[in-house]
Amino acid sequence: MSQDYNQFVLNVKRLTGIDLSFYKEAQMKRRLTSLYEKKGFDDFHSFFKQLEKNPEMLAEFLDRMTINVSEFYRNAKRWEVLEKRILPDLTHNKKRLKVWSAACSTGEEPYTLAMILSSFYPLSQIEILATDLDENVIEKAKIGLYVERALQEVPASIKEKYFTKQGMFYKVNDQIQKTVTFKKHNLLANPFEQNFDLIVCRNVLIYFTEEAKNLLYQKFSDSLQPGGVFFVGSTEQIFNPQLYGFENADTFFYRKK
Ligand SMILES: C[S@@+](CC[C@H](N)C(=O)[O-])C[C@H]1O[C@@H](n2cnc3c(N)ncnc32)[C@H](O)[C@@H]1O
After folding, report:
1. How does pLDDT run across 59-93, given as a tens digit for each residue?
2. CA 188 to CA 191: how far, in whole Å?
3. Is 165 left (phi over 0), alpha (psi -120 to 50) or beta?
4. Among candidates 148, 147, 129, which has minimal Cα distance to 138?
5. The model's pTM
6. Do 45 and 139 share a domain, yes or no?
7. Are 128 and 181 in contact (CB under 8 A)?
């Protein structure tokens, strides 16, 4: 690690509590270098001095380091597996589920969860915790307005039932919005709530080092109830699930033993 980046990582941790050393270095460095060059800085040192005194620049830095792309029903086939093969068992004899969408970005993922769970429970009985490191995405998620592109995988009947067109945007229906509680949470620094039946954490672990991933698999496992399910992204299979007390429930789904 170059001395300049090394020092930057320490400084950012001190300033924001975010530990960049848990993120894959080459990727992160490339993204941040292109940002500081665009802003006219020569190195991480001078860039950090600016971050310290300029909240707008700090917001831009955060925006660049967290990749926020998301969409409803992202990788639709996987959500179908959740609905058809995982949830029938998980909901059996249960009045409600404790559900967490971790690293939820702008809300498409927890709202998708609510839409799918609505086939199993009345909306008034559904409670989903949705968290992200980035306050800006949480604010957008709470507003619940989306461009058409974010809805391209949404089944027509769901689109009809749970969205209303507002000018150029689609608005998520109030009843769906009420099922989700958004909170700021850093997976790499904050404690995890316990006793979840279902945790969805997709398309964020890919940005982390192996060490950070292993740590997080254990923490997710610890915060699930026995029999609870962990749902990961489509490039994020766990190679040794048994190391963390998981068994395979389906591809990309792990059950806590
Ligand atoms: C690519 S998005 C994934 C969104 C959604 N889960 C999906 O699959 O569509 C990655 C999200 O991870 C969040 N993130 C990055 N580092 C994080 C951390 N340490 N703790 C919590 N969230 C984090 C980013 O802010 C971003 O919103």
Report:
1. 999 999 999 999 999 999 999 999 999 999 999 99
2. 9
3. beta
4. 129
5. 0.96
6. no
7. yes
3-class DSSP state of 65:
helix
- How much is the pLDDT for 107? 98
Proportion of the chain above pLDDT 70, given as a percent: 100
> Which pLDDT value is given to residue 1?
53
Contact 86, 227 (CB under 8 A): no
Instruction: Give the length of the chain.
Output: 257
Q: Mean pLDDT over all residues of the chain?
A: 96
Distance of CA 176 to the CA centre of its chain: 18
Residue 248 and residue 147 in one domain:
yes
Which CATH number does the domain housing residue 248 bear?
3.40.50.150
pLDDT tens-place string over residues 34-59: 999 999 999 999 999 999 999 999 99
Q: Find the 138 Cα to ligand 1 centroid distance in Å.
A: 11
Same-domain pairing of 124 and 47: no
23 Cα nearest atom in ligand 1: 16
Residue whose CA lies nearest to ligand 1 atom number 13: 103
Containing structural domain, residue 176: 76-256
Nearest CA to ligand 1 atom 2: 68
Pocket perturbation via mutation, ligand 1, pick of 204, 208, 213, 230 by most ligand atoms within 8 A of CB: 204
